[in-house]
Write a structure and sequence with these properties.
With 532 residues, this protein is an alpha/beta fold. It is built from 19 helices and 13 strands. Strand 8 (293-298), helix 10 (303-314) and strand 9 form a beta-alpha-beta unit. The structure holds flavin mononucleotide and iron/sulfur cluster. Its EC number is 1.4.1.13.
Length: 532
């Protein structure tokens, strides 16, 4: 009798939990895996205690450690993201550990309620994108933190929708990834349109680039800039890859590709074959649309970059921005050897490329954008000190919308509904709720970047130089980052004029900042158009 009663209670509780889990919209894992999904949260909750006796430390897991994931999860919910009891890093035996050298007299960081406290923590870019080449629609990016390219196909529709609405809320751009523009990209966020070797959305029946279609796509959507993808850090030298398991009817229509087989893009572009032709292509796209045009690439051999910087210095052509993706970057699917062994890590690759642009004195003409695990305050600030004007985040943004780092993106079975086209799994992801998480995460990252900059005595992260960084080794040495990277501290700064303008913007009363961002964008354009 007792056994029956207990069994009955268990069944009733299980049914109640199932109904609750299916009904709620907060947690995709519970919606997709009612009842058993709770085990994940229970294990997560007792993780710290468990880990004292078994398994990994807070800093061991990769690509993102438990501490990093916890920080993103808490930030995206605007929960307490502080850590107690001091660092759990072993500073004295950590290799390549970044140390930020604060100023003795930091700048005050306004608190809630104080004058000029900005709850969105806006940090506009110190440069105007497209200004140097005088593009008709040059603009000052409103946010130094933006959402990196991840296409519809590799991510689900609800995930793209969440990223797009989140980008609108956070005032940043949303890079489409190479899969073209889907209805999920049209939820109000500014777009950076990416075109890869597959030219999805702007290709003819033979898969070649189609200028007419490209112009139509740009005109019909809120495209602020165009990024030509040469390569990405996780798989440079091989084209984009979408496994057939993820190619639905809708994706096949949007991309213009057949179903039933994997979609593998070519490794190289058919629209150009060297730097000279690439610059002609860039100018053609910019002339046709008026928007800034840039490139994205991982860093391997250096000849390409020297050639590009040299041709930009010598001819009247140029890319408006360059995104450097680190070899540690993410992907939906890649061959292991390419993910592990091809292309330099961000810090080394970016440093080398930037030096070439300094050598030819064209570094101030380009907006430098970086990606590759830069969605954390210390790595983001370091990238900006090296010379980045903006940073883009991909997997960190995925974490903010519920990714649990299960690393099954390539299988189509993402349990969180983020990287899947399975209808049951993706329906668990509520795009409206998760869009707030993206916006909160982006705003929190900006908040921490601002805080760190002020701690270093600068009003904007682009004004923090490499002099503020040391790198620890495991022999009690702290080596100046300028020495390690063979980089003069002032190289990473914008031009004197851009420095003055961004200082003026960041120290203006909060109510005037938005208009200054716009006015300065226009003024700058006029200066360049008039040949200044
Ligand atoms: C699921 C997924 C899909 C991606 N798709 C693209 C893409 O279409 N085009 C691209 O240039 N990069 C793509 N990337 C790379 C990211 O844009 C980014 O460069 C890289 O992940 C490094 O940033 P992160 O460390 O913040 O993730 C993708 C990454 C992920 C995780
Ligand atoms: S499969 Fe795993 S790693 Fe990939 S998006 Fe989903 S939860 Fe994240």
């Amino acid at each position: 009798m007792w056994t029956l009663t207990i069994l009955g209670v268990i069944v009733v509780v299980a049914i109640a939990m199932t109904v609750h889990d299916l009904w709620q919209t907060k947690h995709a894992i519970l919606k997709n895996f009612p009842v058993i999904g709770h085990f994940r949260y229970w294990l997560e909750a007792i993780g710290p205690e468990l880990r004292q006796y078994i398994v990994t430390s807070n800093n061991e897991e990769r690509p993102f450690s438990r501490d990093q994931r916890t920080w993103v999860y808490a930030s995206s919910k605007r929960e307490n993201n502080y850590f107690g009891f001091g660092t759990d890093d072993d500073l004295e035996s950590s290799t390549n550990h970044l140390i930020i050298k604060h100023a003795a007299f930091p700048i005050h960081d306004p608190h809630p309620g104080e004058r000029d406290f900005d709850q969105e923590f806006r940090i506009p870019c110190a440069k105007v994108m497209g200004a140097y080449r005088g593009r008709r629609h040059a603009f000052r990016p409103k946010s130094v933190v933006n959402v990196s390219g991840m296409s519809f196909g590799s991510l689900s529709g609800p995930a793209i929708e969440a990223l797009n609405i989140g980008s609108k809320l956070a005032g940043c751009w949303h890079n489409t990834g190479e899969g073209g523009i889907s209805p999920y990209h049209r939820r109000g966020g500014d777009l950076m349109l990416q075109i890869g070797t597959g030219y999805f959305g702007c290709r003819d029946s033979n898969g070649n680039f189609d200028l007419g279609k490209f112009k139509e796509v740009v005109a019909a959507n809120p495209v602020r800039a165009v990024e030509i993808k040469l390569s990405q850090g996780a798989k440079p030298g091989v084209g984009g890859f979408l496994p057939s398991a993820k190619i639905t009817e809708e994706i096949s229509r949007i991309r213009g590709i057949p179903r039933g087989r994997d979609c593998a893009s070519p490794s190289n572009h058919t629209a150009f074959g060297d730097v000279d032709q690439m610059l002609d292509f860039v100018e053609m796209l910019a002339d046709a649309t008026g928007v800034p045009v840039g490139i994205k690439a991982a860093v391997g051999e250096m000849h390409f970059w020297t050639d590009l910087a040299e041709q930009m210095a010598r001819t009247h052509r140029g890319v408006d921005f360059i995104t450097i993706d680190g070899g540690e970057g993410g992907t939906g699917a890649a061959p292991l050897v390419f993910a592990d062994h091809v292309a330099l890590p961000f810090k080394i690759g970016f440093g080398r490329v930037y030096r070439e642009f300094v050598k030819f004195d064209v570094h101030h003409h380009v907006v430098f954008n970086g990606s590759g695990k830069l969605g954390f305050p210390e790595t983001g600030l370091f990238a900006m000190a090296l010379g980045c004007d903006t940073i883009s985040v991909a997997r960190e943004a995925m974490l903010s919308i519920g990714c649990i780092q299960a690393q099954r993106c390539h299988t189509g079975h993402c349990p969180a509904g983020v990287a899947t086209q399975n209808w049951w799994l993706k329906r668990g992801l509520d795009p409206t709720l998760k869009s707030f998480r993206v916006a909160n995460y982006v705003a929190t990252l900006r908040k921490e970047l601002l805080r760190l900059s002020r701690a270093c005595g600068a009003v904007h992260p682009s004004l923090v130089t490499l002099d503020h960084f040391d790198v620890l080794d495991d022999r009690l040495q702290a080596i100046a980052a300028t020495t390690l990277f063979d980089h003069r501290a002032e190289w990473g700064l914008p031009s004197a004029e851009d420095q003055a303008t961004i200082r003026q913007i960041m120290t203006a009363p909060l109510s005037d900042r938005d208009s200054l961002v716009k006015v300065n964008g226009k003024r700058h354009r006029t200066l360049v158009e008039s040949g200044a």
